[in-house]
Amino acid sequence: MAAKKSRKALGRGLGALLQDSETSNKKEQNEELVPASGDKASINEIPVEQIEVNPFQPRTHFDKEALEELAESIRIQGIIQPITVRKLSDDSYQLISGERRTQASKLAGLKAIPAYIRTADDQQMLEMALIENIQRENLNAIEIALSYQRLLTECDLKQEQLGDRVGKNRTTVNNYLRLLKLPPDIQLGLKEKKISMGHARAIINIDDIDKQLSVYKKTVADDLSVRKVEALVRDLVSGKSETKEKKESKELPHEVKSVQNKLSSHFGTKIGLKIDDKNKGEIKIPFLSKDDLNRILDILDVEL
Prior knowledge:
Elements (H helix, E strand, L loop, with lengths): L12 H5 L26 E4 L3 E2 L11 H14 L5 E7 L2 E6 L1 H10 L3 E7 L3 H13 L6 H13 L5 H8 L3 H9 L5 H8 L5 H7 L5 H14 L3 H12 L4 H10 L2 H14 L4 E4 L5 E4 L5 H11 L4
Parallel strand pairs: 2-4, 3-5
Antiparallel strand pairs: 1-5, 3-4, 6-7
Helix pairs in contact: 2-3, 4-5, 5-7, 9-11
Pfam families: HTH_ParB, ParB_C, ParB_N
GO molecular function, one term: DNA binding
Keywords: Chromosome partition, DNA-binding
């Protein structure tokens, strides 16, 4: 099989919005996207009391313990990377990026904080806040999906433009957006990390909401792996009723049923096996997605 393509580098969307400044995406103080030190703009010390929160900030919850840890780091080392703001008046500024550092600076007792001052309208503020939010490593899949949706609707971007902004291809963007079609209980399960995006991507292939919820509850209760959920979903979307499957199973001779079970175990999915009186028949191997097809081809050692 061909090797998987390496992850596409992040696009230039945020850097372009920040007047083509370079960006940084490091952990802790460096994790939020800010202009690099080589930017032409000077760094200004701004009183923290003059800095307003970003009204377009898509993230409303910040882990208290993580903020305390960052505050302690700031007490010892100071601010490593300046925040980025826009000027509202002579004594009023609004955050573009750096809300965690600003909150942690207040906890650390700082009176002023280094900042780059930028010019940005409301549309740019929203887009920069959303893109910065998406590029964090600790977002759950629903948070990312909601940010994608807001970029499409509120920033009036097309999917191709959105992909360029966040450095993702259209398929990846679509996979996230599809998660928003799941019932609220399953979306909450994703947020709370009861299931992974792999689980959710399998469940979304079921059209019936009640069946989606049933598979979700079974996944959580039995701690099913993604592969087991994919197999369960394949059985549901194959179009066969449970009664028909039982009937076909009873009609198979014992030795043929044994072969069917072994094939199902080998391929990690319910294998369809038919055989007539002349020992002629067929084997069906269902798959859920392109990735699942590639998995089956790997097992068969088939190269394309």
